[in-house]
Amino acid sequence: MTVPSVPPTLSGKRPSKLFKNWMAKMASLPMILTALVVFVGGTTWTVTYSFTGSRMLPRTNWVGLDQYERLWSSDRWMISITNLGLYGICSLILTLFIGFTLAACLDRKIRFEGVFRSIFLYPFALSFVVTGLAWQWILNPDFGMQSVVRDWGWTAFNFDPLNNPDIVMFGLLIAGIWQGSGLIMCIMLAGLRGIDEDIWKAAKVDGIGTVKTYIMVVIPMMRPVFVTALVLIAAGIIKLYDLVVAQTGGGPGLSSEVPAKYVIELMFRAQNLGQGFAASTMMLCSVVIILIPWAYLEFGGRKRG
Amino acid sequence: MSKILKSALLGTALTAATATAVMAEGVELEVTHWWTSGGEAAAVAKFADAWNATGNTWVDGAIAGSGGTARPIIISRIIGGDPMAATQLNHGRQAEELIEAGLLLDLTDVAEAGGWAEIVNPSSLLDACTLDGKIYCVPVNIHSAQWIWLSHAAYESAGLDVPTDWNEFTASAGALQEAGILPLAMGQQGWQQNIAFGAITLAVAGQEAWNGVNIDKNADVARGPEYTAAFEAVAAARDLAAESNVQDWNMATNLVITGQAGAQIMGDWAQGEFSVAEQVEGKDYSCLPGLGLNPVIDTGGDAFYFPVNDDPAITAAQKELAALLISPEVQVSFNLAKGSLPVRGDIDMSTANGCMQKGLEILANGGVLPSGDISFSQDTTLQIEDLQAQFWSSDMSAADAQAAYADIIANAD
User: Fold this and answer.
1) CA nearest A106: which of A182, A14, A217, A7?
2) Which of B34, B188, B396 to mutate to test the interface with A (most CBs of A within 10 A)?
3) Alpha-carbon distance A252 to B241, whole Å?
4) Of A57, A141, A272, which has the smallest distance from its Cβ to B379's Cβ?
5) In this complex, how many residue pairs, one in chain A and one in chain B, have their CB atoms less than 8 Å apart?
6) Does the domain formed by A75-304 have CATH 1.10.3720.10?
7) With an 8 Å Cβ cutoff, are B97 and A56 in contact?
């Protein structure tokens, strides 16, 4: 580069902006390179090859939008996104609700708070694979919940979600919420602890009930905490894969398939890279469509204001 | 201290000595495969023993999980420039692109020296290893999928005779249901449902229509009346299996073994489960190839491929191993342990059990079909499996399923 990056009038007066904090910039260089090469590079490569007819090996035989046409006419894909939508909405609402309720209960200065907190957070220490297997056993009609309740004498009790295509997603949902709500509870609890005691005193003076104070005053004040929780839950929903593989394997039939599983199956089992890339590109698009306007509102807006 | 040092030194010296000995005597070959269940591991040990007996070393690279798990690992190692010396794959089209990319060793000279063209029976197995007139793999066994396994205990408790073909089975199903027995055990997974579909189609639609769809990929045949009858038969079978709430195939086999279910349609590998449960063919269970109507079996199975290697010593050893895998003694010991049929017709398998004998007889009579792995690409196979998974787990009508199936066949490659 022969053209100096700093206007000549400024040079000499102040050190170049590029070298300000150069130690910090040097230190973050590996991460910047990783982000550029691995994330941006990898994404570009994937999107590019989704327009090819690549089968087992990547090839550059362009087929235009054929892969996308096949994707959107594929029943498996439609089932996958419907399932993800159902799981996503239910999981988002229920995890937030359960997480906040548990946190609010613990925040009422109850006894043995530490013990309860550990118990609720404990499932999060398990991987999705372990969670999936454990719940597969719990929901097994011959050994699990159903047989236990029947042994108690309620012999008509019928609860076999994992073998019923209509409700299998709820079997997954139970496991997902069990695993994830502890973490959300901890984040919420931290947020609640950040609320000034004086707010509570003021509410008491004004004669506002506890529940109403939570809903009308505390929750609006916890907006950043909710945003963090939302991002964590949403990321968990989009990448839902290992839980399904461990708990149902996508079955019975195709009834608990999810998009991430479609990508893996098409790329490696069907040996159809192009189709898998098209599906993963669509997953990226859905994330981008949701995240960009939201991030713009959330972060861009604040900077200007 | 000095004692430890001494023993450490001695150990190093010994290791060095063994290392040189191996270098001098033979070559270490890493062989990857996904044979990890009890019977399978015993079978692969026969290969390893035979190879070690030649003074070379078999480095076992078993990958746990099914072929679906192992295959991506194997393929990515070959593509990624870290090839193993030999690997199991199902012969057919799975390795086609690897061959086209020049990543697999050409075994034509070994095949010619061993006269494979004459000894491999059925010859379609060797065709599956052949691309542009060159041979790239060694078939080692034959597995077929067109079998129905019947539980004698279930039929005894319902007071019925054990059926001898599919029609008798469907006729007896109502009586079984009345006796509180599930007529047909079915694991709720696409590939199992596809096996049942294939077997029922072959029995009901007949071999000519089956060939038209599976070999000529003729979508008109798939829309034709033979396939309408087949899809209706599958829809009827779906009703018989409606109460079957198991997922894995061996769980479904277990229902048959314990007499909770009357029958299961599954490949010949199900026999391993009956053997482990110490059941006797003809007394505790029956097997009917081709569902008893059309005694033909397909000839899928396993084959070994040898990725290209720079080291001439390894290349020579790979060719030696290829010749060994198909040699008569190894074929007998391996296939008896695995419960599969041998790829050559000129060896003595008289110690095999009744079901294997039935299979051998069909092979000798030439009642063989190419397997799905050979005629369809993995992509098409997965689409058909998806359709079957949907069909079996919903109330989709036979006509809708047939139309969707014909579309897949029309676009098949």
Assistant:
1) A182
2) B188
3) 13
4) A272
5) 74
6) yes
7) yes
- Among candidates A56, A75, A165 on the partner chain, residue whose Cβ is nearest the Cβ of B386: A75
Nearest residue to B140 (alpha-carbon basis) of B158, B153, B126, B161:
B126
CA gap B39, B67 in Å, rounded:
16
Using alpha carbons, list the distances in angstroms from residue A302 to A42, A222, A305, B135: 31, 16, 5, 67
Per-residue pLDDT of B82-130, as tens digits, reads 899 999 987 767 788 888 888 999 999 999 998 898 888 788 888 888 8
Q: A75-106 and A223-238 helices cross at what angle (nearest 10)?
A: 150
Q: How far apart are the first and last CA of chain B?
A: 69
Q: How far apart are the first and last CA of chain A?
A: 37
Mind telling me how many Å the CA of B81 is from chain A's nearest CA?
A: 14
Nearest CA to A107 out of A184, A50, A169, A188 is that of A188
Cβ partners under 8 Å of residue A205, min gap 6: none
Q: B27-61, pLDDT tens digit by residue?
A: 889 999 988 777 788 889 999 999 999 989 999 99
Residue B131 tokens, joined: 């691309």
Q: Does B72 touch chain A (CB under 8 A)?
A: yes
B68, B71, B188 member nearest A253 (Cβ): B188
DSSP bridge partners of B56: none
- Tell which residue, B341, B389, B359, B369, has the closest CA to residue B205: B369
Residue tagged 């949902």 (tokens): A173
Kindly report the length of chain B.
Answer: 413
Residue ranges of chain B with per-residue pLDDT less than 70: 1-25, 92, 371-374
Q: Which residues of A touch B252 (CB under 8 A)?
A: none
What interface predicted TM-score (ipTM) does this complex get?
0.72
B147-298+376-410: CATH architecture: 3-Layer(aba) Sandwich (3.40)
Residue with tokens 């798990």: B69
Q: Report how far residue A8's alpha carbon sits from residue B363's, in angstroms, rounded to the nearest whole number.
A: 87
CB atoms within 10 A of CB A34: 11
d(CA A191, CA A172): 29
Q: Report the DSSP beta bridge partners of residue B263.
A: B150, B184
Check pLDDT > 50 for residue A231: yes
Nearest residue in B to A248, CA atom:
B247
Q: Name which of A56, A76, A251 is nearest B75 (Cβ-Cβ).
A: A56
Whether the CB-CB separation of A275 and A93 falls below 8 Å is answered with no
Report the SS3 class of residue B351: coil
Candidate CATH numbers 3.60.15.10, 1.20.1200.10, 3.40.50.2000, 3.40.190.10; the one for domain B29-143+300-367: 3.40.190.10
User: What's the token pair of residue A127?
Assistant: 């991987």
Which of B79, B378, B393 is opposite residue A165, by nearest beta carbon?
A: B393
Residue A76 with chain B: CB contacts under 8 Å: 386
A66 CA: distance to closest CA in chain B (Å): 13
Closest-CA residue in chain A for B68? A269
Structure tokens at B376: 């369809």
**How does pLDDT run across B372-384, given as a tens digit for each residue?**
666 788 889 889 9
What residue spans define the domains of chain B?
29-143+300-367, 147-298+376-410
Q: Where are the domains of chain A?
A: 75-304
Contact (CB<8Å) A163/B245: yes
